[in-house]
């Protein structure tokens, strides 16, 4: 076997150790010949040097086997997932085909491989997903739940392996992605153990000092904490035994990340966080007695310790959509300390630890979870979204949202995200009901569409056949499903209106016996200042444009196109040439930026993506090198930076007065294609004090020109004055700042 060069001595030991462990975990599910065929494929792939070590120098075969152990041991998935994981690199590099995999191992394995290849292709250039690929990643996830589970395990494995990696930037990127994408995904799917590990490791790699500070504090207080837990448990244990219940109790210290979030939320040091641990009572109950015995244990605990009624969480009667079931109560323990107690059965505990995969094992007992419906809504939202960042923001909100449950008048129960409105509920039941919704009766009282629903509300949707979806409905709804359905309905309505408007226009042409020429009409539409044809037809539908007036302008356009103007030498704006020699960017560093808590004199740079100038609303972003980049609050990247790296955002504001410093600003000017207009624009700029024209680029098409001007300007006041003057130039249609 010519694979010796591919594995180090240490990796060979780990290879055989992992192989034995995988056989032990999944041996009963593997078919005869699976291991032999898998070994052949892997050896062939390695011998042909088709697979390489990744950014962190990790051996792909070892890495996949480690991930497979997590998939089998901690999530509970077996044959198809393990084989899919181990074979996807061989298929991706062409050692074997998807058809061969399907023939040798079955459609199940081939399906997983297709999903993993799509995801790994997105990761091929970078250790993390770039924002423009985020939509494609989520679409791959939405097609097969197993691919999400495998990728969560893969990220957990990578986070475990890169602790000693020398590539700090790549490690930080992976850690940030784990926190903003994979930990929320694990939360949504009920994989709470893996979620906590991802969050803790992410904190360890991104805020090392904070992580070790909390870890040391936990170690210092461990003895006293264990003593307190034992004192709390002892009387409870005695009473539960006397009641004849079969159970075990464990105290669980909360994760470092969870404690850090509490410190930030409560704005207190480590010593100020009172609920550092939770007590878990796990009952060994037969299925038919689960609820009875859980409530019996609840009664025993609350008889002994005073409960906080506001902190009761009953996921026993109404489980979460990911299948999570438990009773949570906070009680006053010894020494006047609040203690969280979780009561559940062995079955519920396995679902809480392993999430979705464990729920599949018990399927038929409690029915399907709401996750299939959630994935369907994700798929629909992505298919109707062109903006990757917007899709990402909506997706993340859906992952972490809490749930409320509401009832129909007939008593049917529905689960919605916390903050859902009457309109969200209407679309949740059916899109036709949502489109006709005019309000609702909540607990017998008439309410508006924007009414936020609370758990336990009884909701009766009221409709009208004359009602149609409105644009402002998008500001009322909070769920992806409702937003997607509203956008679809608005697009369909607009398409019908545009078709009717075009038909009306063409009929008028026919009545007046005028030949309709599409090219002439397109030139007219651009001359009228419409960027897209649909806006033109929408204006006809809204009756802001008169059809007869359009026909008159069309005849003028036709005459203009046909006129032979030999006596006029036409000069396009595109031929404009900026002759003057322009000075290089000058400026002083005398302007002061106040960053965060009134700090001055910090090293900062102005971000090139949005080119902020004195007077703009700005914020600071702490870069990896330690310097601070200043961005405009309306920067195209602002929402991405806030959502992904919120902890690296600092406040910033301009102080003092603008004192001679000039900043480069790019303006986009659109107008009629005439060189005279460009001359007027440059003339205005040259007469402005404190403003210098650095460069100009012109592009003309169909009678319009689009110019990009770079000017040096001191502050927003001067910039706004310049933009106003440019808009007054005859023939200029639009002036905007890039």
Automatic annotation (TrEMBL):
Xref: PANTHER family: GTP PYROPHOSPHOKINASE, GUANOSINE-3',5'-BIS DIPHOSPHATE 3'-PYROPHOSPHOHYDROLASE
Residue intervals of the ACT domain: 666-738
Protein name: RelA/SpoT family protein
Source domain of life: Bacteria
Stored PROSITE patterns: ACT, TGS
Any Pfam family matching the protein: HD_4
Family to which the UniProt record says this protein belongs: Belongs to the relA/spoT family.
Domain TGS: from-to ranges: 402-463
InterPro entries: ACT-like_dom_sf, ACT_dom, Beta-grasp_dom_sf, NT_sf, RelA/Spo_fam, RelA/SpoT_AH_RIS, RelA_SpoT, TGS
Assigned GO CC terms: plasma membrane
Function text: In eubacteria ppGpp (guanosine 3'-diphosphate 5'-diphosphate) is a mediator of the stringent response that coordinates a variety of cellular activities in response to changes in nutritional abundance.
GO terms classed as biological process: guanosine tetraphosphate metabolic process
